[in-house]
Design brief:
- The chain is of the alpha+beta class and about 450 residues long.
- It folds into 2 domains: about 130 residues, no CATH class; about 325 residues, no CATH class.
- The protein is built from 12 helices and 18 strands.
- The strands form 5 sheets. It has a 6-stranded antiparallel sheet, covered by helices on one side.
- A hairpin with a 6-residue loop joins strand 17 and strand 18.
- Helix 1 runs antiparallel to helix 2 and helix 2 runs antiparallel to helix 3.
- The longest helix is centred in the first third of the chain and has 20 residues.
- It is globular.
- Bound molecules: zinc ion.
- Zinc ion binds next to helix 6.
Length: about 450
């Protein structure tokens, strides 16, 4: 019997609902399309659609009616579409054909980049690069590493669901041993925008003690990035307080004062990314310093090695339980039970073309021992920044990747990072110190670097 397929494309999934061809299904599908102002008789293209509240209401009403006839599968469409955020795009197609896997993939990729507000040449470039890279990752990289990736598209709670059975991944203790598990631990700190990625296996005592200290250093470190991207924390957008007090933050969002400000217009025309705030720095005589090279001096002191530890603690939180034993050394490192004076560098980059609303985290672990590659690597992407860090699983591993040659070999394996300018920063210093950073905004080459400090 002839069938009609309704494909609903979102950037993550593409469910298919199959209808038997009859008058009822024609009427239903035509009505469904008309909610999005599409005429099925004339439209044969797959066009991106933005859903909104009014359409959602209309959709619910119509789908409820249709569910009397078609049953639960109709409600599935509703629940999928109502989960799509208001400003996100989705698409659908009605066809008697079956679409190839590859076509579906391509539509999903297209939606993903459209949801990042790319269009025209930028969109085409982004899609082409993405597909090329994906092929390379599939064939070369993933033969060496397993990958775990959480992007915040849905809530994940890693670890033991049952409180009574939980064992803290950091102190190894459970409720019977006097620990409590009342608050849920954020894998990436909440202050950095994480609302979706959690770990059950972390006791309140570790969460509020050692882990908090580490996250405080990371938070202070990232404070300047946070303001640049106008990210709202619990208490609104943080102000940048540079030690010499000379940073001026200008909100670019709905700011009528900017319309006739030639200076700011001129600066913005030279920045490829679209920050929501601009940071200007003034000399003591009031003249502005080069807006593309900002020197930031934190008012909070930062322990660089704690920042390294903070990245490692995220690895412990998301690693599959069966691999936890491989991270015993890492855990000792986090607890400061092993003294390390020199750590492998952390790779950092800015991808201004890609702004993430929710932070993402990836963990890569070797499939088979390979003496030229670290066993575990963690990557954290926040807003428009990415950090890649070797998770030390032994003292030898640390010594190994202090060698520039070996480090380069490892980093080159992660070839999907090519095409970005990376900085390799030293977070070895294990004491509280003032923190200065140079940020370079530039059309061709946006980068950041910690001001060099020699351990004193
Ligand atoms: Zn604990």
């Amino acid at each position: 019997m002839d069938k009609l397929n309704l494909y609903i494309f979102t950037e993550d999934v593409t469910p298919i609902i199959t209808f038997t061809i009859d008058n009822n299904s024609f009427v239903f599908l035509a009505k469904f399309a008309s909610i999005f102002d599409i005429d099925l008789r004339t439209n044969h293209e797959i066009v991106p659609i933005i859903i909104n509240d009014i359409r959602k209401k209309e959709l619910l009403k119509m789908l409820q009616e249709a569910s009397n006839y078609y049953g639960k599968r109709i409600l599935k469409i509703y629940s999928l579409l109502s989960d799509i955020e208001d400003d996100k795009k989705f698409s659908f197609a009605v066809t008697s054909d079956e679409f190839e896997e590859e076509l579906i993939d391509n539509i999903q990729i297209q939606l993903k980049f459209m949801n990042m507000d790319l269009e025209g040449i930028e969109l085409i470039d982004a899609i082409e690069n993405y597909i090329k890279l994906k092929d390379e990752i599939d064939t070369k990289f993933l033969s060496k590493y397993n990958m775990i990736h959480y992007d915040g598209s849905k809530t994940v709670k890693i670890g033991e669901q049952d409180k009574k059975k939980r064992v803290c991944r950091f102190c190894g203790k459970s409720i019977v041993k006097g620990k409590s598990f009342n608050s849920i631990a954020h894998v990436i700190p909440e202050s950095l925008g994480n609302k979706k990625i959690f770990c059950h296996d972390e006791c309140d005592q570790c969460n509020g003690g050692l882990i908090k200290t580490l996250e405080d250093s990371l938070g202070s470190y990232l404070e300047v990035f946070k303001t640049t991207w106008h990210v709202k924390g619990k208490r609104g957008v943080p102000k940048i307080k540079s030690k010499d007090g000379n940073l001026e933050i200008i909100s670019l969002k709905n700011n009528p004062l900017l319309e006739n400000n030639e200076e700011i217009k001129n600066i913005l025309s030279q920045i490829r990314s679209r920050p929501e705030v601009l940071i200007l720095q003034r000399n003591s005589d009031g003249s502005k310093i080069d807006p593309f090279n900002i020197k930031y001096q934190s008012t909070n002191k930062i322990n660089p090695q704690d920042i390294y530890r903070a990245f490692c603690k995220m690895a412990i939180e998301i690693v599959p339980a069966e691999l936890l034993n491989k991270l015993e050394f890492t855990n000792r490192f986090i607890h400061k039970d092993v003294k390390l004076t020199k750590l492998p560098k952390i790779a950092m980059t800015i991808h201004p073309e890609l702004f993430l609303k929710h932070p993402e985290i990836s963990l890569y672990y070797l499939k088979q021992n390979d003496e030229n590659l670290p066993k575990i690597v963690i990557e954290i992407e926040i807003w428009t920044y990415a950090f890649v860090c070797i998770v030390p699983t032994s003292e030898n591993e640390i010594t190994d990747y202090l060698s520039e040659e070996k480090y380069k070999k490892y980093f080159d394996t992660f070839y999907f990072y090519k095409g970005h300018k990376w900085n390799f920063e030293d977070f070895s210093l294990d004491e509280l110190r003032d923190f200065n950073m140079n940020i370079h905004f530039n059309q061709e080459d946006t980068s950041l670097e910690n001001e060099k400090h020699t351990p004193s």
